[in-house]
Write a structure and sequence with these properties.
There is one protein chain. The chain is built from seven helices and 20 strands. The strands form four sheets. Strands 2, 3, 4, 5, 6, 7 and 20 form a seven-stranded mixed β-sheet that branches. The longest helix has about 30 residues. Helices cover about 25% and strands about 25% of the residues. The chain is an alpha/beta fold. The N and C termini lie far apart (about 65 Å). Helix 1 runs parallel beside helix 2 and helix 1 packs parallel to helix 7. The protein has two domains: about 220 residues, 3-Layer(bba) Sandwich (FAD/NAD(P)-binding domain), CATH 3.50.50.60; about 100 residues, 3-Layer(bba) Sandwich (FAD/NAD(P)-binding domain), CATH 3.50.50.
Length: about 350
């Protein structure tokens, strides 16, 4: 399998802090903040914007590798349909900064806990930050067959989501690459957008008699045998080549990746990883607000739900931020009460 994407979207180039506190104690170079957001995609920026408006000090640390960077446009985001995804991130960073939030480029390599309960984030660049709460919005990795042509055309005419790309590929000659038992449903789904859909079984199981009848009813052609490569000519997909050497002309290829949430930072803290109910990937177990059950740690976006699109991801960031701010408010209130009770 090939891993396409890397951690958390965003392309900020701000100069970052260079605190280098070491050991289990608080380093002299560590920077204090209310909330650290790891990952600067729409989920992370949505959380940061909400927290900034709540007058919390917030820092977004982003590695600068957006999952949807290969796509020229994103779709289904109300009022921003067709927007360039990198432009959306640029606008989002500006909005976060407008409320006093900071967005920096960096790669968080560890999150540990101080004795007082605060969390310490260390970056590959040597910076250290201590935060009262953390939102992890590092996205996911798409794992798909290692076939020539897939990686080169990913996000353009090799796609996975009909709601993201179906309209743009309507009435085109589509190939559905079978990689799991879900291949039949994928082919039937894409039939909504095109009358010319071919299911290449590749490594998917042989459809049942009932499934074959369903495919025939929708005029979906089924081709057995493994696929060897995606044919490309003049910067576009032109066909699918089987291991036998036979080439079938196609305009675009649909593949269903395995979605693996980027959870490396969370595992040492005790977060739990679970399989998505549809059996299409792994994600972090959390409640509806994104709270992981680990004190002070929330998740948002595709770390929380591997099927979330851009609009759902942004909304999950807002939801996590609101729950997190309520948690901080209770802590602030408790501290204020304790201070008031101290003898003078």
């Amino acid at each position: 399998m090939t891993n396409l994407t890397s951690t958390g979207p965003g392309t900020s180039r701000d100069t970052q802090d260079t605190g280098t506190g070491s050991g289990d104690g608080i380093g002299s170079g560590d920077v204090d903040i209310d909330v650290a957001v790891v990952g600067g995609g729409l989920a992370g920026l949505g959380a940061a914007l909400t927290l900034g408006r709540a007058r919390r000090s917030v820092l977004v640390i982003d590695a600068g590798h957006p999952r949807n960077a290969p796509a020229a446009h994103m779709h289904g985001y109300l009022t921003r349909d067709g927007e360039n995804p990198l432009e959306m991130l640029r606008l989002g960073r500006e909005e976060v900064r407008g409320y006093g939030g900071r967005v920096i480029q960096g790669t968080v390599v560890s999150i540990t806990r101080f004795p007082d309960g605060r969390l310490r984030l260390t970056t590959a660049e040597g910076a250290g930050y201590r935060a009262r709460r953390v939102v992890v919005a590092t996205g996911l990795v798409d794992e798909y067959p290692d076939l020539p042509g897939l990686r080169e055309r990913w996000g353009r005419d090799v796609v996975h989501c009909p709601y993201c790309f179906g309209w743009e590929l309507r009435e085109r000659a589509l190939a559905v690459l079978g990689t799991s038992p879900l291949a039949v449903m994928a082919a039937l789904m894409w039939r909504q957008w095109s009358g010319d859909v071919v299911l290449f079984l590749h490594t998917a199981p042989q459809p049942t008699a009932q499934q074959l009848a369903q495919l025939a009813a929708r005029d979906v052609t089924v081709i057995p045998g493994e696929v060897a490569a995606i044919e490309i000519d003049q910067d576009r997909v032109t066909g699918v080549r089987l291991a036998s050497g036979e080439v079938h002309p196609r305009d675009a290829v649909v593949v269903s990746p395995w979605f693996a949430a980027r959870h490396d930072l969370l595992a040492p803290l005790g977060a739990t990883l679970v399989e998505h109910p549809a059996g299409i990937g792994r994600q972090v177990q959390a409640d509806a607000s994104g709270f992981t059950g680990v004190p002070g740690v929330w998740v948002a976006g595709n770390v929380l739900d591997v099927t979330a699109g851009v609009m759902q991801s942004a909304a999950s960031g807002v939801t996590a931020a609101a729950a997190l701010n309520a948690d901080l408010t209770l802590e602030d209130t408790t501290r204020a009460g304790n201070s008031a009770a101290l003898p003078t």
